[in-house]
Amino acid sequence: MRLLSEFKTFLSQGNAMDLAIGVIIGGAFGKTITSLVDNILMPPIGLLLGQMNFSELGVTLKPAVDLADGTHVSAVILRYGAFLQSVLDFIIIAFCVFMIIKSVNTVRKLKTTQEEAIATPPSEEVMLLTDIRDLLSTQKSA
């Protein structure tokens, strides 16, 4: 019963919900990037390389065979093209995540700098210099 209670506490905390949302958004983001690579980036690259479809690139290690009893043994193919496509997907996803994190860190740094500027009163020297400037400006006016 205690295990069930601890599990209920875990689920009611925000961490489990944040993790679930992150996984769902990450999956959707990954599918979007895969679609970008498969449908937008790879066709022009394949066209430039001579009508080549990267996902079909491979080396046949053992050709397909039809046996005497009528069974078919599929070919053994090392599909390096699909691997290259997955690597390209990963690089694009990693770059997008990097840019998102970089943007968030920049905004956080800007916000922290603004909060520090607002929260920190001017130093005593700055206040004295401000007073001197104000006195000098009033003397020139007179």
Oligomeric status of the shown chains? single chain
Question: Low-confidence parts lasting 5 or more residues at pLDDT below 50?
Answer: none
Instruction: Specify the helix fraction band.
Output: over 70%
Computed over alpha carbons, the radius of gyration is: 31 Å
Give me the secondary-structure category.
Answer: mainly alpha
CA(first)-CA(last) distance: 85 Å
The main sheet comes to: 2 strands, antiparallel
What is the number of helical segments per DSSP (H or I, 4+ residues)?
Answer: 4
**Within the largest sheet, what's the order of strands?**
1-4
Give the overall form. Answer: elongated
Residue fraction in strands: 5-15%
Average pLDDT value? 83
User: What's the order of the H and E elements?
Assistant: HHEEEEHH
The count of β-strands is 4
Commentary on this structure:
With 142 residues, the protein is mostly helical. Helix content is 73%, strand content 8%. It has helices at 2-12, 14-48, 80-119, 124-141, and strands spanning 59-62, 65-66, 72-73, 76-78. The strands form 2 sheets. It has a two-stranded antiparallel sheet with strand order 1-4. A two-stranded antiparallel sheet has the order 2-3. Helix 2 (14-48) packs across helix 3. It is elongated, with a radius of gyration of 31 Å. The model has no long low-confidence stretch (mean pLDDT 83).
